[in-house]
Structures are given as structure tokens and as C-alpha cells.
Amino acid sequence: MADRLTRLAAGIRPEQFGALLDHLECDVFQHGLVTAGAEEGTIWLLDGAGEHLVPAYNTGPHADQLVGKFKQPLNTGIICMVFATEEPFLENDVWKTPNKASCSIPLLQVQTYALIAVPFSFCHACRGLFLACSLNGRFARVGSSRFRPEHLNAMQRTAAMLSQLIEFRCSAKRWVGRRIDAVNTWLTVDQARAYLQQGTGRGIKVAVLDSGIEAAHPFFNGLRLADDLAVLDEGVALHTVAGQGRDLYGHGTAIAAIIHRLAPEAQIGSFRVWASSCGPGRC
Q1: Distance CA 71, CA 62 (A)
Q2: Selection from 70, 74, 94, 71 nearest residue 82 by Cα
Q3: What pLDDT does 203 receive?
Q4: Which of 159, 157, 106, 105 is nearest to 133 (CA)?
Q5: Same domain assignment for residues 78 and 6
Q6: Do 58 and 104 lie in a common domain?
Q7: Helix (H) or strand (E) holding 55
Q8: Is the alpha carbon torsion for 103, 109, 111, 112 positive or negative?
Q9: Do 116 and 146 contact (CB within 8 A), yes or no?
Q10: Residue 37: helix, strand or coil by DSSP?
Q11: For a surface tag, which of 128, 130, 186, 247 has the fewest beta carbons within 10 Å of its beta carbon?
């Protein structure tokens, strides 16, 4: 599976990335930006030639002018430094840098005043980065509104979650050469109702991003989890470890039980994203 995901990821290009994202993944990215207090966010990916970083997704009003149209050479700029070192970066005074090419987008005549940049890795390699920005001087005008380490932490959590979601979708997508075989994966209300009444979930994989799943719970009767991972938060660093069939609070197990009852033949994956210090209503 790891080799297959690596081969699939090698075929992902910035111009295709929008077709790979679904509503959930877009919402995860947007939630990370809101948590970080950013005005705008961009997902940058390495181009096919391996020479530039290219905007593949943007949440701002000029997305149609930016995505796929601007290229940042790998030998210049802050974002390329983050990509090369695979180290996160936070700067509230980036607008003061003498190297304007590192903090502005000439195509749009937009100046970046403060930014958070975190590496974006999926399918076993760093393939781009997340950029959360303050534009046009909001931070310069309002000194109290500044990015802080907890905002960097929020963007790293977002990158980790989106990485897992994209890997999950890659494992389920059909590809032709280097092109996504575009399939409408969203059901109508009537289709969903019919599948709930008649379907068993065979051939479907469901990712549960929650507090974990207690795999040994008697309700599951020996169900084997398709995935079982936990995202651990250590300051500004995140990493994934085996979930070990644990549920910190019981919520994820309850959700998985509902899924298993409605779709007993569906594969279920557990992605524990709640920290041990969190709980319902406290995160």
C-alpha cells in the first residue's frame, strides 16, 4: 500500500489538486486558518518539473488569478526555504524584509505582512507547504493581532489532518496515468437515503477523525480497523503513531458503532486527533 500511495502521489500536480480536494478537506483547511487568525491561506505544491512551487488552492478573492498561474522558483523566497528545510516558519514582520520577492506576489500586487508557513507532507514525502497570511497591513495597523506559536501549532495540526485525508482519498481514487479519473463522489439526498436502507457498506472506507476507536469493544465483534493512527502534539511539533485500538473519551467509538450498525461491511479507519488534555467541550 505504501508503494502504491507513493506512486499515486508522484502523479499529483498543482493543476489537479483542486479535483482531489472535497468539501471536508476544504473545510479542514479553512478551519485551520480561522483558528490561526489568518486572513487568507494557500496550499503550494511542487510542479512537475521539480523547479517551482505553484499555488494549488487558495481561499482568497483572487484565487482564480493565482492558482496555477504564479510560480515561485525553488532558489528564492521564504516559502521555498520552508519547503527545502521542512521546518515551520512564523514571522510577523516579514513585510520589512529587503527581499520583496520573498513576501509578495507581483502578479496580484499584494503584499504579505505576516505569515505562517508549514511543510505539507503526504504519501511519505514533503510535497509542498501551507501558507497562512495577513495581507495589506492588518497586522502592521493592529499591533495586538499577531501570529503566535499556538497559531503555528494549529496550522501544523491542519497539515497533519489534511495529509491523512488525502492519503485516504488517494487509496480510494482511480487514476489514469498522471490524471485523476474524475468521479463525482457526492451523493444526492435520495441516493443516500436508498443506500442507507439497502446498502451494507461493502467497498466503502470511512475515516473517523475523533478521540480514537476502542477496537476491542464487544459491539464490533472482532472488527479490524482499516487504519489506526494517532496525531500527537508536542509543542509546535506533530507526529503520527499507532493508535493501538484506544479511545481517550469514548466519543469516537460511539460514532464508529453508528457507522458499523448502518454499514456493517464498510471498512472503518480511526484517526485520533484529540489530545489527552482535551475532551468534549474543552478543545
Answers
A1: 15
A2: 74
A3: 85
A4: 105
A5: yes
A6: yes
A7: strand 52-58
A8: negative
A9: no
A10: coil
A11: 186
Cell of 233: 502534539
Q: What is the pLDDT of residues 179-203, one digit of tens each?
A: 444 444 556 777 777 777 788 888 8
Task: Tell me if 190 sits within 8 A of 232, measured CB to CB.
Answer: no
Name the residue range of residue 22's domain.
2-176
| CATH code, 149 | 3.30.450.40
Query: What is the per-residue pLDDT across 22-34, written as a single tens digit (0 to 9) for each?
Result: 888 888 899 999 9
Environment class of residue 234 by beta-carbon count within 10 Å: exposed (0-12), middle (13-18) or buried (19+)?
A: exposed
Domain count, the chain: 2
For residue range 152-166, list pLDDT tens digits in order: 999 999 999 888 887
- In 3D space, the residue among 206, 248, 214, 250 whose CA is nearest the CA of residue 231 turns out to be 248
Give the residue ranges of the chain where pLDDT is below 70.
Answer: 1-11, 95-111, 136-145, 169-187, 235-236, 275-283
Which of left, alpha, beta for 147 (phi over 0: left; psi -120 to 50: alpha)? beta
Task: Give yes or no: residues 121 and 236 share one domain.
Answer: no
Which of 57, 42, 48 minimizes the C-alpha distance to 10?
A: 48
C-alpha cell at 238: 506533530
Whether residue 161 is found in the same domain as residue 110: yes
> 111: which 3 cell numbers?
503584499
Contact present, 100 and 61 (Cβ < 8 Å)? no
Residue of 10, 271, 243, 272 whose CA lies nearest to 123: 10
Report the share of the chain in percent with pLDDT over 70. Answer: 76
β-strand 89-91 against 110-122: which pairing, if any? antiparallel
